[in-house]
Amino acid sequence: MINAVKRRWQWFFSAIAATSILSSLRNSMSLARSSFYDNNDPESSPPSCFRAREDSVPRLMRGTSYLNPPVINLGMPKIGSTSLQHFFACAGYGASHWWCGRGTHCARCIQDSVKHGLPPFQKCKGSGPMYSQIDGSGMGGKMYFPQVELLDEIVRAYPNATFFLTFRSMDGWYRSISKWKPNKINKNMKSLKDRMAGANITGLPVGSDGLESFADFFCNHVRRVREVVPRDRLVEIDIEDQRRTGPLLSDIFDIDEECWIQTNANPKLLRNNATGENGDRLSETLRTNVISDTVRGKAKIRGKGGVMRKNPTYDASIEASLLQKKKKTAQKLRSG
């Protein structure tokens, strides 16, 4: 009887010890996971390649001196490219979106430049120096993604450039590219998702479908960009974090915070998801703030503290050339 009681107590204490060991193991595994997963994501979320890194730009480098052209967005379409163009154009900088000059897609002139052994943006005339979306119709007519296919060439040619990497929730991005078509005239054109899936983009096999496939493609692209681009040249922003993104960009580039507005949103999704003051503001933006794909810069910029001249290191040669042509045209008209 006594031996039986002893065995029961031994079993009881052994069970407690085993439970303690298992608990310690779970805690260790949790700590290990916390360095790999972003705690801001849901419990089942993928690694932090789906979220912008905090303070991607060191605070000591923030200010007007940080804007070193060209400014190139390496992110994916439908993740804030129009908003980026609006931000810099609003401030007075030349900004291109999808089109790089009249009748030329950025993707095509970049591809053509590299093909001829030139710096990637050499043949992109009358555009920049801010390139908010560089993917588009390539030389073969299919969608082409220079930020994927020519990432090394771009960073090597412009080592001191300012690069962007934009983020949003993957389910939101996938819904957006699944429903997005250029306009009502091209209503029979395939969705952006299907066009991407048929473009034979490196990392996105032809025929890819489903959120998981596109999320893997996005994640791998983010990891590669972070490996190739120095951290102090890479600005990461979450376009859905309206409270933080505007002040962050204003702080980094010394541009009026009011220039940051999320634009070019899917109108149907916007109506369904927008609420309160922010939602009203976005809806108003869709109605009134439609801007050209190529915006010429100005001599002064809209800074945090008011209107001011551009940084002396800013290369405005493209804008100066355009201004000179405009003056010559005006002189001819007057003399004629």
From TrEMBL:
Signal peptide: none annotated. It comes from the Eukaryota. It comes from Stephanodiscus triporus. This is Sulfotransferase domain-containing protein. Pfam families: Sulfotransfer_4.
